[in-house]
Each structure stands twice: as C-alpha cells, then as structure tokens.
Amino acid sequence: MQSDQPGPTAAPDVNGPSFDARFTDLLIKLIVVGFFAYLSLTLLAPFFIVVIWAVILAVALYPAFAALRGLLGGRGGLAATLITLLGLAIIVVPLGALTVNVADTTLELVADFENQTVTVPRPPESVREWPVIGEKVHAAWTLASVNLEAAVKRFGPPLLHAAGTIVGKIAGVGFGMLGFAVSVLIAGLLFVPGPRLGEVVKSFARRLAAERGAHFVDLAGATIRNISRGVIGVALLQALLVGVILTLFDVPGAGVIAFLVLLFCIVQVGPVPVLLPVIIWAWATKDTGPALLLTLLLVPIAVIDNVLKPILMARGLSTPMLVILLGVIGGTVTYGLIGLFLGPILLGIFYELLMTWMKDEAPGPRTAAVS
Prior knowledge:
Elements: H1 19-71, H2 76-115, H3 134-146, H4 148-190, H5 194-248, H6 254-266, H7 272-285, H8 288-303, H9 305-312, H10 321-335, H11 337-361
Helix pairs in contact: 1-2, 1-4, 1-5, 1-11, 2-4, 2-6, 3-4, 5-6, 5-8, 5-9, 5-11, 6-7, 7-8, 10-11
C-alpha cells in the first residue's frame, strides 16, 4: 500500500556550475569569438570601401538592370554582363583618361619649373593691397617675373616638396581607379541576387527595429539612387563633356579643368566659376569663330544640371549642400578618389535616416486622460 504523503524533495545539485563559473565561461567564449571576429575584420578591412561602393553602384543601377532584363526576355545574367561592361566603359575609361590628363599636366608644370622655362608676368599693383600677405606675395611674384632663376633657388625646395606630394597623390589616384574597376565588377555580380539580398537586409533590420527598420532600408536605397543619379551622375556627365570639348579645342590643362568642374558640380556650386574664365581666355586668345563655337558648347553644359536634376532626383529627398560638401571633403581626404563619390552618398544616407528618425521620435501633443 502506497503512502499518500509526498516524498522527500530533491536536494540541489551542489556539483553544478555556479553563477560565477557560468559567467566566466560566457566571458571567455565572447573574448575568443571577438578575437577571431577582430582578426577577420582586419583581413577584410582593405576591401570594405570597394565593397561598399559596389553595393551603392548595384543599388543605383538596379532599375536600369531590371529594365534591360525585361527587354532581354528575363535573361538576368546577360543583362548584368551588359550593365557591367557599360559601367566600365562609362565610369572607368573616361575617369582613367581624365586622371592621365591631370597627371600629364601636373608633371609638365613641375618640369617647366625645374627647367626654368616658365614665363611669369609682372603682378598688378592691386596685389599690394591684399591684407596681411599682399606685400610678400607682390615681392615674390615680382622676383619670379624678373629673375625666375633666383625665385626658383629661393622657393624651389618647398615647391619640389609640394611636387613630390602631388606625384604621390597622383599615384594614389591610380590605385583609386583600380578600386573603381573592381567595384564595378562586384556590382555586376550583385544584380541577379539583389532582391534576395535586399530581403535579407530587411529581415535583419526588422529584427533590430521592427517595421521601422525595413522602412529605413528602403529610405537608404532611395537616398543612394537620389544622390548617385541626381548629384554624382550629373556632375560626372558635365565633367566628361567639358573634358571632351576642351580636348577637341586644344585647351591647356583640359583634364584639370574637367576635374575642377566635377568637384564644383558635386558640391552643388555648378561649373560656371570654372568655365567662365575658360570662355574669357578663349575670346582673348582665339579667333572669333572658335571662341564663339567653344562658348556655344560650354554654356549648355553649365545649365544642363537645372534640367536633369529635377528628372533624376526623387521628390521628397533634399540633402543640404553643406552635407554634400562635407561628404566630398571628408571622403576625398580619407579614401581618395573613391571617397570623392562615396563620401557624399554615405553622409547623405546618414542625414536622411537621422532626419526621418528624429521626425518619427518627435513627441506629439499630449492629450488629457479620459477618466
């Protein structure tokens, strides 16, 4: 006959791990995993910028890929290959030619200074009136115009040091062009699995911030397309057109002028401050016919952004010029040539996400509680 009284309770397992032991075990595991994660990130760090730029290119060009895939009867691989080849032809080849032209112009100028074949005009008297540095600049300029050899001996070492720095920067631009080519190739590989990868990113964002996270992913994609097409794309088109036209008219320093146009257009200043001196120089040095033709070709380029930007840029996204400017400067200083394009896009994404988050988090008017 069994007893109805409950049996003795089980004694706690005194041999089990204590809280301190479990915490120590977890801490050791986290340290080991973190150490290997750090080593892995260190190995992959040189490729981060290239991969990020490839993702931005893939997001920006995906609408064109989707349209081309539809025209080709759903053959995504062929469409991705054509977009990749077109991207290499449009982005890498002209930028490479522009880089070579800038390098040649800079090296020729350095060689002229070293060979003392540069002719320096006398400075205007108004230079003396410049605040603080007017007298010093006028004296140095006058010395260079009268006795260039003495000026080179006096100011040569700093100029040569600066020239070495410039040559080093030009070499860095060459590596940047290689990074551009690799980014375009990686972007081509991302087109076909793009929607699936996008859903993975959205799922991860939902785990972090529910539906707001997915909304932020969509907003980031819209910002990429907005800035890359409306700002970077239009600026690149204007710079390439200027480079081609100036080369055809045999304008000295065409590559440098085109690069300045690219910078001024990206920071939303426009190409007029760069092209206006070129037009004045053309009327002062060339015959009426070539000067008029050059003017007629450059003036539309100076205003073409007013037509293209409203078409290419999505409504409701207006990144301030200061954000773009800081992105250009910071990106170029930090990452070189790729940073010139990558900086404003990344900073623009951060700005748009921050503004949206602040609007969503802004507390609304409080209502009285109903009893």
